[in-house]
Write a structure and sequence with these properties.
mainly alpha
């Protein structure tokens, strides 16, 4: 069962957007967040083995999964934001959330400098950190979208700076430390279920989704250019 905090946030967003079947869609949104959090954890397990840069590498990996997660959420609920905007927003939110895990990241980096057992410790630490950053960033994004929806803002008029400003408001008004605490508990649940151990397939699927999305975007742009040339001719 996905964390109830995520499910509640997903349902609240769907209700604010007046979506049909908010409970079902809210659960689907929560599942997207958990799937990407598990993927980030698996990626963190690997990147933390790089001596001296494990912490930074795992945080960077989390940003990639958060961006992909935002794209999937937007596709599900019909948000109009472009992938470039989402990349920028994902980076801003992850950087802020990661500041609450700076001690763990530092410990992981020190561990990664030690051969053998040190690398194992770094790997375990960064799996939790990457999962928690991604999970918390997902929750923040759901709250950002919900605030816009409740304010009856035309989402087609919302730009990158608007999203970042609202994200900052959410981060300042919400208890991010509590979010990270809840995320760690969800990591324990996912690990006990064996989801982290089996998460390699999730990472592969998410990466394939990214590649597929990029190809579709490229094909769409090429098609648009072709149509434009035909009109000019």
């Amino acid at each position: 069962m996905v964390g109830s905090l995520l499910v509640k946030a997903g349902i609240a967003l769907c209700k604010a957007l007046h979506k049909t079947g908010p409970q079902v869609m809210g659960q689907e949104i929560a599942d997207i967040v958990e799937k990407h959090s598990i993927g980030a954890a698996v990626s963190g397990l690997g990147s933390a083995w790089i001596p001296g840069v494990g912490g930074a590498a795992a945080t960077a990996a989390a940003i990639g999964f958060v961006w992909s997660m935002y794209v999937r959420i937007n596709a599900l609920i019909g948000m109009p934001f472009s992938k470039n905007i989402l990349k920028s927003v994902a980076t801003a939110i992850c950087t802020n959330v990661a500041s609450y895990a700076v001690a763990a990241i530092a410990i992981s980096t020190v561990f990664s400098l030690l051969p053998g057992i040190g690398s194992i410790g770094a790997s375990a630490t960064m799996a939790v950190v990457a999962f928690s950053i991604t999970w918390s960033a997902g929750l923040v994004y759901l709250k950002v979208l919900t605030r816009f929806a409740k304010a009856d803002v035309d989402l087609n008029e919302v730009d990158e700076e608007d999203l970042k400003a609202m994200a900052q408001d959410v981060l300042e008004s919400e208890n991010v430390k509590e979010m990270m605490k809840q995320a760690k508990e969800q990591f324990k649940v996912a690990k006990a279920r064996g989801d982290i151990r089996k998460g390699g397939s999730k990472v592969t699927q998410i990466r394939n989704d990214r590649k597929s999305g990029s190809k579709k975007s490229g094909c769409s742009m090429a098609s648009t250019k072709t149509k434009t040339r035909k009109r000019k001719a």
